[in-house]
Design a protein that fits this description.
Distance between the termini: 26 Å
Strand content: 15-25%
Number of domains: 2
Structural class: alpha+beta
Radius of gyration: 21 Å
Number of strands: 9
Length: about 280
């Protein structure tokens, strides 16, 4: 039994803690699931997870009583939950030594997200101030280490809610697909490749762009797609190398699954010290 579970049992003796989501859901009414309760998972030392639910007030009490390095808490997002836009942006530094400024890719995608979710005429805003406008809606958290860049974006003051996490994932994938297609379709003195709109997957588009990433980053600083506050040079930083030195997205598309679990603020993965904050 972890210290965190011991604290929960001491603070809330009647609290239900299970190992399976179905066990937790079966013991609760649909009214509770759709109410303002927070459903949480605890990562144990052996990497297994235990699950429970709490009110916001109970969660605050738990935070106040639990040592910081024992807060291995994630929120469970059920398929019935309305969700705000959230993004995991991450890549390994050793495989991307050519990226000197680790904020470029993150800030460029954040601004594109803000523009897409608000349907505004961005031309009326100065470029240097647009990130400040974006941050009025988005909360940016970081859990980076010396080996890995890790940002988490949350549309904290949303203009759009999605029906569930899966729907959000479809939206993010479509946005990325359109973005990559628009990069390939653009032409300039440094970039001009033959391309016809066909039934390309996002993976196909990444493969097409992979040999040109350095060119795009270095030379397309004055090239733009449908969005004039982010250059193609900046957007190209959304494409990174993974541990196998293969080109991939810095946006993690695997987090938009059924019953996904998202780490809570100022919490940590078991055995690590990169708190999300």
């Amino acid at each position: 039994m972890t210290i965190l579970i011991q604290i929960i049992k001491n603070l809330f003796p009647s609290k239900i803690i299970t190992h399976h989501i179905c066990d937790l859901v079966n013991q609760l009414s649909e009214q509770i699931i759709k109410s303002n309760y927070v459903f949480l998972s605890i990562e144990n030392e052996n990497k297994t997870r235990q699950l429970f639910y709490s009110t916001i007030e109970e969660l605050i009490t738990l935070f106040n009583h639990c040592p910081r390095n024992e807060r291995t808490l994630c929120e469970i997002i059920f398929p019935t939950n309305l969700v705000k836009t959230c993004i995991d942006f991450e890549y390994y530094t050793d495989n991307n030594l050519d990226i000197n400024d680790h904020c470029i890719g993150a800030s460029s995608f954040l601004k594109i997200l803000h523009f897409t979710l608000n349907f505004i005429d961005h031309k009326h805003h100065e470029n240097q101030k647009y990130i400040d406008i974006t941050l009025q809606q988005f909360l940016v958290l970081e859990a980076s280490t010396s080996q890995k860049i890790s940002y988490h974006f949350l549309h904290a003051n949303p203009t759009v809610l999605f029906e569930n996490n899966t729907t959000l994932g479809i939206f993010i994938q479509m946005l990325i697909h359109v973005l990559l297609t628009s990069i390939i379709q653009h032409t300039c003195s440094h970039f001009n490749i033959p391309f016809k709109l066909q039934k390309y997957t996002t993976s196909d588009l990444i493969i097409i762009l992979s040999p040109h990433i350095t060119t795009l980053r270095l030379h397309c600083t004055k090239c733009y797609t449908f969005y004039s506050h982010v250059s193609i040079s900046e957007i190209a930083h959304v494409l990174v190398m993974n541990k196998q030195n293969q080109c991939t997205l810095a946006i993690d598309l695997n987090v938009y699954s059924k019953n996904q679990q998202f780490r809570l603020y100022d919490c940590v993965k078991q055995g690590q010290n990169n708190f999300l904050r």
